Amino acid sequence: MSSTINSAIGGITLGPGGYASPLTITPTGAIAYSGPGYAVYGSGTLVNQGAIAQAGGTDGAVYLLNASAVINSGTIAAD
Fold first, then answer.
1. Exposure on the CB side of residue 50, measured as CA atoms within 13 A
2. Which of 35, 57, 58, 67 is the most buried (most CB within 10 A)?
């Protein structure tokens, strides 16, 4: 099983209790998050072809646990 996101506003959980791995952000897709915590958090494989942004928080854009992987051909940014 896998998951695909075209767009989302808010934090995304990857793995148990959230989106199934691998999670793919499409080339025209985006995850935009401006709250506390991470834009993407959890465990599994994240395939980013679009944009992941975390703005205004104290944490980074992506935090993956254990034997997770990021395959990135898009952009990942945090301020």
1. 19
2. 57
